[in-house]
Amino acid sequence: MALRIRSYLPRSLYGRAALILVAPIVIIQLLVSVAFIQRHYEGVTEQMTESLVYELQLVRELHLSGQRDRAQQVADRLGLKMSPAGSQTLDESPAFLDFSGRVIQRILKEGLPDVVGVDVNSRHRAVLLRAGPPGDQIDILIERRRLSASNPHQLLVLMVFAGLLLGIIAYVFLRNQLRPIKKLADASEAFGRGQILPYRPRGAEEVRAAGAAFLQMRARIERQIEQRTLMLSGVSHDLRTPLTRLRLELSMLDPGPEVEAMEADLAEMDRMISGFLDYARGDAAEEAVLTNPLTLLQEITTRARRMGLKVELLPLSVAGAVPEVWLRPDAITRAVENLMNNAARYGDLIEISLSWTTRKLIISIQDDGPGIPPEQHELAMKPFARLDPSRNANDGSNTGLGLAIVAEIAISHGGALQLGKSLRLGGLRADITLAR
């Protein structure tokens, strides 16, 4: 039951705050309408109708005693319009919301024993009372304001107007308080995707403190990224310089098995260094740009085919135009190529598909290789992990960083890397989920 109720509640902060604001106002108005308006006006109607019953009894007694002229004079003096009963039928069904009309009918019928009918509906702002024995019936027209409080709807209109006015004022105030929180959330989410949005702390003291802390954190992270980029550039240069000298020295030696083995070792060291640097560098140095993912995948597929890979880009399974998203093209290219190279190493056919929802974008790479056991999926995405030799899902340099690099790239885009079994090809299925 609680889950059902929760599914109908608003999910956004604006919606929940509006619900907290509007619900008490509506409840109070309903309570006032039921407890005050209905009961109060019914009580007032009872008192006013009971007072008028005595005047009607006097007029009826004079009329029944034969003093009809006297009864007419008294009725005129009392503001009652008395006339012989007409032939029209009385409408004794009050309107649905005419609570006071039901009270008027009940009191008049209880106070006057010879009442034939009480029409509270067919006369505008008047009540038609028909009373008397057969053959001597009279109609008495009574102004409605003498039987019930006038204009009871004015209080309802005033309540609704006051509620709307207070609701508008509260909404404006609430929006001004929630807008800084929304801007802080947008700036934080954008920074997680590699975008730097201009942000200035505003709002209440607590929100300003959170905004200032975010700016300080963002500045520290930017400094660390810049320092790491500079350090990695220096490390890359310092490590590859001696490797280049070694290659040059080996090239000057006479060819032989020992020289070939040493050159293979140097090539493996170069691949290992590239893998380490790619993992450490990530995609921090690249800025996110608005990109069409389908166009990017088409370019990746074309390059892979030129390299001899059997890659197929499947048709779109989602109707509509492909949405452009903020991402780092080089990083996504590196991630997709890592997965394709891994798939080509252990299988023959590779299929790439693109799908999306309102909140995320999914790039799927499938192959017809042996796959990875489900119990090793989490291990495969950890840095420097080693899997079963029959299928080492990481980079060919055997550094254990291939899937780890892809996972880091997906996380930096507000998404994740998910591994599973390909239902189409029977091998591995890797889904790169990116936040839109």
TrEMBL record:
Residues 175-226 form the HAMP domain. GO terms for cellular component: plasma membrane. Residues 234-436 form the Histidine kinase domain. Its EC number is 2.7.13.3. The chain crosses the membrane at residues 13-37, 155-174. It is a multi-pass membrane protein. Pfam families: HATPase_c (PF02518), HisKA (PF00512). Keywords: ATP-binding, Cell inner membrane, Cell membrane, Kinase, Membrane, Nucleotide-binding, Phosphoprotein, Transferase, Transmembrane, Transmembrane helix, Two-component regulatory system. It is found in: Cell inner membrane. The keyword NADP does not apply. InterPro entries: 2C_sensor_his_kinase, HAMP_dom, HATPase_C_sf, HATPase_dom, His_kinase_dom, HisK_dim/P_dom, HisK_dim/P_sf, Sig_transdc_His_kin-like_C. The keyword Magnesium does not apply. It is an enzyme of class 2 (transferase). SMART domains: HATPase_c, HisKA. GO terms for molecular function: ATP binding; phosphorelay sensor kinase activity. It catalyses: ATP + protein L-histidine = ADP + protein N-phospho-L-histidine. This is histidine kinase.
